[in-house]
Amino acid sequence: MKKNQYIDLSLFRENYNLLEKAYLLHWLLNKRGVLRQEVIQKYLPLLGCESHETVLDYHLELLNLEKSLAYWALEFSLPIKIGVRLSRLSKTNQKALSQLPEKLSINGNQFKNIFENLEELCVKEKKEMAQLICELLKTENFEEVLVEKRYPNLKAMRDTWNAHKKKINFPSGVRLKDPSTFEESSVQIEMKIRSVRDLKNKLTQLSILTQKKDLDDILNLL
Amino acid sequence: MKPFLPEKIYIDREVLETRIAKNVLSFFNTSYEIISDPKEIGLSTSLEQGKKELLVTKFQGKVFEHCPAGKPGMMCCNYFIFPFAQNCHMDCEYCFLQYYLNKQVMVIYANVEDMLEELKKILTLKQGFCRVGTGEYADSLALDHITGISKILVPFFAHNKKAVLELKTKTNNIANLLDMDSQGNTVVSWSMSPQEITAKYEHGTSTLSDKLKAAVKCAKANYKISFHFDPIIYYSEWERGYQELTESIYDAMGAFPIEWISLGNLRLTHDLKTMMKIRFPQSELVGEEMVRSTDGRFRYPKKLRIEMYQKIWNSILKKRESQKLYLCMENPDVWDKVQVPKTSQPKLFWGTSAPK
């Protein structure tokens, strides 16, 4: 084995982070002049990666990440497919996004959800991500407002549901569970009982409720 | 349809002498590589490159399987798959094949005659009549001018009446079909969208007008015809778009019967959405409001889906009152709310629950 190749191989380990792998692959291709096919077949598996053209391309794209955003991508151990999408954002959008973890004190999952909602909202509203972030930062609850903007119909359904629910006087210890997406065809009623007598009382009260329009109205939302 | 011009052709040594392999080689009349280990081909190829490579090999799996799209809790249309090929050179933005396949190259299985022998045994043992389709993992006709597979499939089903063959396509590639007698046992079906949707999201597929011309030619050649409004895509002009689509179908088809029309709203898995964001970052499809349904897939909100189904269903029944229709991959609750009259559902696959 040639000396250079020996050094190259000894550099490759599985426990590098995504960006370290990206730099190593870039170095192999551009400084060492190793052929793309050889990098895919030989070096990607040494890094614990699938031997696949796309995997190489994804890693190389990560080199377009702004330092501030790259830091969070690594800190949150974001999946490579998120990393690729982050790296394709303009520098302005990347910088705007990178300020969120500290400003909102969020964890990796929250960051991932926020980013996915933001990228979908950008397409829907045909706006730059930085502009959306700027608008949302002016609100009191960034995450909540973002989800409401992303899912306006779901929000409207939930508001209507809650308005109807307020009108219904369920017996104490009886609770109507909220549907998560209104895809459900039924909802659960939770009931706490202490005795047979208590159960009878609650069933009587529920029976009276079934004769009122409010219960019908709320169930029609499903 | 966008032409398929492979940059590389691999032929599995084991199928070199088959009719399909010979058809492929004589069509392209170009260099090819004979391989002994087809498993290795396409495993490290990107999706984009894979669409430009063709592997002709031997199929070794199950020749008859239930459509994997059915999930518990969803009504199922009882579609069985005969997997004659894999992958598609066209590029619909919403296509599940983008994330579903391990091997990214275009694959054609050349041992179709052996596969059909096995299918014949299965159908003999199977009770009742069923629908067998080839359009789940590939377009049924996109490469037919190259492979000539329909010349084997159509005669087989013409003589095996335990099942009807459905050839599902987004193309007008029907030339091979026109001089065969299907004995009424092949349904040629088209996946239909308003032309503005096709132009925007269904890259490389035939235009609406070309698909309709092809449908009429097939009807004249005594094939049964059906249409799939699937996926139905929401956009600001959807009501007009699907109304016009319905009208153009019946205007073109005239008095020819349409066996069935299926309606299915767009559904995306999380993995598919991820792939779409990478491959089509500006696709408006991922920007629409979709919520997770009981089977884990993302769909438009139920209320909107029901409205879309009702309006499209009614516009179809206005054109032809006796038209058979069904919903694809919807839950019983939506079927109930659309108020699907049982008389307008095709008996062949009505009301079957998805297998667990």
In brief, what are we looking at here?
The complex is a heterodimer of chains A (222) and B (356). With 222 residues, chain A is mainly alpha-helical.
Report what the structure shows.
The complex is a heterodimer of chains A (222) and B (356). Chain A has 222 residues and is mainly α. Chain A folds into three domains: 55 residues, no CATH class; 69 residues, no CATH class; 61 residues, no CATH class. Chain A has 14 helices and two strands. In chain A, strands 1-2 form a two-stranded antiparallel ribbon. The radius of gyration of chain A is 27 Å and the shape is elongated. Chain A starts with a helix and ends with a helix. The relative contact order of chain A is 0.06. Chain B has 356 residues and is an alpha/beta fold. Chain B has a single domain, classed as pyruvate-formate lyase- activating enzyme, CATH 3.80.30. Helix content of chain B is 33%, strand content 20%. In chain B, the strands form five sheets. An eight-stranded mixed β-sheet of chain B has the order 4-6-10-11-12-14-15-19. In chain B, strands 2-1-3-9-7 form a five-stranded mixed β-sheet, with helices on one face. The longest helix of chain B has 18 residues. Chain B starts with 7 loop residues before the first strand and ends with a strand. At the A-B interface, helix 4, helix 6, helix 9 and helix 12 of A face helix 10, strand 17 and helix 11 of B.
How many beta-strand segments of chain B? 20
Shape of chain B: globular
- The CATH class assignment of chain B is Alpha Beta
Whole-number count of domains of chain A: 3
Mean pLDDT of chain B equals: 92
Structural category of chain B is alpha/beta
> Count the strands of chain A?
2
One letter per element, helices H and strands E, the order of chain A comes to: HHHHHHHHHHHHEEHH
Outline type of chain A: elongated
CATH architecture of chain B: Alpha-Beta Horseshoe
Q: What is the CA-atom radius of gyration of chain B, in angstroms?
A: 20 Å
Poorly predicted segments of chain B: 350-356
Tally of individual domains of chain B: 1
Counted by DSSP, the helix tally of chain B is 12
Average of per-residue pLDDT values of chain A? 93
CATH topology name of chain B, in short, is pyruvate-formate lyase- activating enzyme
